[in-house]
């Protein structure tokens, strides 16, 4: 068996020890004579796994008791609707920041439900910057302010927390658990699992409990956070296998030393890769230095005619999924928690070798 280095943006790399445990558990989970996938979600076993996942996540992120942790389905994209449906309330209006493609999708979806004020957009810089908060045009008395903490496609990340008087709602799909955050700063944090948590099919919502109970009367029960909270995320059948794998990933993260420890590794990985890009005339990254994502590193070759060869040769060298998003072109290396420093070193060595042969 050969495991390649996987730089996929999502579904993304999973820690190898997690896959090994899952393999060993597959036919017979903890001597029960069946796999976890085949058990009732109401069984002590599955409920125990769900509770363990929640407790481990709470300790990893320091989630206070006045926040509910919900394990849902439908991906972050479903939360683009669930956020306005749960939070707009009587006000019917909200503020959104536009820093790229995921922001745009969140905004378009929210516009179905309310009056959406875009406080700032980085369109003019082709979404390579984060607009300073001093330039934002905040709305009058919005129900909340929404922003995307890390734009997975553009590779731009907020390294500061917006300061507003209304609940902050943030899409952390591609940055959650990559570095320390203060959960208390937020009203709602949500994330699809398939970048830094586990396999696709699971969606995490962390919501301050006082924000529950405001859902629009037409909000489907399946999108209503209060319903999910009241039912321990088991209003219907949850994605039990994805939850089990996420629990294993959380355990793995604890074994790595937790979020601060992985943050140090992530900063080293990203630092090296950006330094390699900046140190060459052959590669470049368009994002302003202060907002360069730790998790998603887009880069282009000075000569795009070499793109195809770069992708063919990198794949042959065991470096997978480096093709940039179809809307941007070029390359993108997603270097989530489960992508080792060794993988990043191998990528940099390949890039330097490729440049020498083609530069
Ligand atoms: C991947 C991603 C999404 C979409 O997630 P789905 O789970 O596919 O709906 C939304 N926002 C961000 C920031 C993402 O990276």
Main attributes of the structure:
359 residues, alpha/beta, Aspartate Aminotransferase, domain 2, Aspartate Aminotransferase, domain 1, 2 domains, three-stranded antiparallel beta sheet, 9 helices
| Count of domain modules | 2
The CATH topology assignment of the largest domain is Aspartate Aminotransferase, domain 2
Separation of termini?
34 Å
Query: What is the architecture of the largest domain at the second tier of CATH?
Result: 3-Layer(aba) Sandwich
So what's the overall shape? globular
Strand order of the largest sheet: 2-10-9-8-5-3-4
Q: Label the structural class.
A: alpha/beta
Description of the molecule:
The protein has helices at about 15-25, 45-60, 75-85, 100-110, 225-230, 240-255, 260-280, 305-315, 340-359, and strands at about 5, 65-70, 95-100, 115-120, 145-150, 150, 155, 170, 190, 205-210, 285, 295-300, 320, 330-335. Helix 4 (about 100-110) links the parallel strand 3 (about 95-100) and strand 4. Helix 1 (about 15-25) packs across helix 6. The chain is of the alpha/beta class and about 350 residues long. Strands 2-10-9-8-5-3-4 form a 7-stranded mixed sheet. A 3-stranded antiparallel sheet has the order 11-12-14, with helices on one face. A two-stranded parallel ribbon has the order 1-13. The mean pLDDT is about 95. The chain has 2 domains: about 15-255, Type I PLP-dependent aspartate aminotransferase-like (Major domain) (Aspartate Aminotransferase, domain 2, 3-Layer(aba) Sandwich), CATH 3.40.640; about 255-359, Aspartate Aminotransferase, domain 1, CATH 3.90.1150. The protein is globular. The protein starts with a strand and ends with a helix. The protein binds pyridoxal-5'-phosphate. Pyridoxal-5'-phosphate binds near residues 10, 102 and 148.
């Amino acid at each position: 068996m050969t495991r390649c280095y996987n730089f996929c943006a999502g579904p993304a790399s999973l820690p190898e020890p997690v896959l090994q445990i899952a393999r060993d558990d597959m036919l017979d989970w903890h001597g029960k004579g069946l796999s976890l996938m085949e058990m009732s979600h109401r069984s002590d076993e599955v409920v125990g796994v769900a509770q363990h996942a929640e407790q481990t996540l709470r300790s990893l992120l320091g989630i206070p008791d006045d926040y509910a942790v919900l394990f849902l389905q439908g991906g972050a994209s479903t939360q683009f609707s669930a956020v306005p449906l749960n939070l707009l309330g009587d006000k019917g209006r909200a503020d959104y920041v536009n820093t790229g493609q995921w922001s745009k999708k969140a905004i378009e979806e929210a516009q179905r439900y309310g009056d959406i004020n875009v406080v700032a957009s980085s369109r003019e810089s082709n979404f390579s910057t984060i607009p300073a908060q001093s330039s934002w045009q905040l709305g009058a008395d919005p129900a909340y302010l929404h922003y995307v903490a890390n734009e997975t496609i553009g590779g731009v990340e907020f390294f500061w927390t917006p300061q507003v008087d209304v609940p902050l709602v943030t899409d952390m799909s591609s940055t959650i658990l990559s570095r320390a955050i203060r959960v208390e700063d937020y009203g709602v944090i949500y994330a699809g699992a398939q970048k830094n948590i586990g396999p696709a099919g699971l969606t995490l919502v962390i919501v301050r409990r006082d924000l529950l109970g405001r859902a629009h009367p037409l909000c489907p029960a399946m999108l209503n956070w209060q319903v999910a909270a009241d039912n321990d995320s088991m209003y219907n059948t949850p994605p039990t296998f994805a939850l089990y794998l996420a629990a294993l990933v959380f355990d793995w993260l604890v074994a790595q030393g937790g979020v601060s420890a992985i943050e140090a590794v992530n900063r080293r990985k990203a630092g090296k890769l950006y330094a390699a890009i900046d140190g060459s005339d052959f590669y470049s990254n368009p994002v302003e230095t202060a907002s360069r994502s730790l998790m998603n590193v887009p880069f282009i070759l000075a000569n795009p005619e070499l793109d195809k060869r770069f992708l063919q040769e990198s794949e042959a060298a065991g470096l997978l999924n480096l093709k940039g998003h179809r809307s941007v072109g070029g390359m993108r290396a997603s270097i989530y928690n489960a992508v080792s420093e060794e993988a990043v070193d191998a990528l940099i060595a390949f890039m330097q070798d490729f440049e020498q042969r083609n530069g």
